[in-house]
Write a structure and sequence with these properties.
Blueprint: H1 2-10, E1 20-30, E2 41-46, E3 49-55, E4 61-66, E5 71-77, E6 84-89, E7 100-110, E8 125-132, E9 137-140, H2 142-168
Parallel strand pairs: 1-7, 6-8
Antiparallel strand pairs: 1-4, 2-3, 2-5, 5-6, 8-9
């Protein structure tokens, strides 16, 4: 049986193994209202080094293709908005002939910078993605998501309080961002 499989493989009758690369497409939108944002900068860092940058188009769309066997950070920024990012791990089995492409859609919502809000928390990745080149499977790191989600919710509640107070011309009353009327 083994010889028959080898013979079939040599004759090209068995399907060739092929791996995947990852293409991330998505939308950059405004946190308040959800409108697409054109001209947002998406910087791509591979193993800690900036390797590329693209801008979202007039419909807020962007697309980047990532090579396998690397750690990436996609960092989203726009003038007057809080910079946000997420991480991607593309390590896995890699071989010649990686001609299949797995496409993943990721929307990034951008918040306006407020003078009374510290955006430092958002320097951390909002999520961590794992891509397996051999199978094309994509998954978000659930442990990281369980850790970061309550912190994101807390920071967004503070941001929303600052947003409402800024719109009403109210100043924060303490370090935690609480407001007095």
């Amino acid at each position: 049986m083994r010889n028959a499989m080898l013979t079939l493989a040599l004759l090209g009758l068995l399907p060739a193994a092929s791996a995947y690369t990852l293409k991330i497409t998505g939308l950059v939108s405004h946190y308040h209202g959800g409108e697409p944002m054109s001209g947002a900068l998406v910087r791509i860092y591979k193993n800690g080094v900036k390797v590329d940058a693209v801008e979202s188009n007039s419909f807020g769309r962007y697309a980047v293709r990532l090579e396998n066997d690397a750690d990436y950070v996609l960092r989203f920024s726009a003038t007057g908005f809080v910079t946000k990012c997420f991480g991607v791990d593309t390590h896995g089995l890699v071989w010649e002939g990686e001609n299949n492409v797995k496409e993943l859609f990721v929307e990034m919502t951008m918040m306006e910078v407020l003078p009374t809000f510290d955006p430092g928390f958002f320097d951390m990745p909002m999520g961590r993605l794992r891509f397996e080149p051999a199978t094309g499977l994509v998954s978000w790191n659930k442990e990281y998501e369980e850790w970061v989600r309550p912190r994101v919710d807390r920071e967004m509640a503070i941001y929303d309080a600052h947003w409402g107070a800024t719109a009403e011309g109210i100043k924060p009353s303490d370090e935690e961002g609480r407001y007095r009327r």
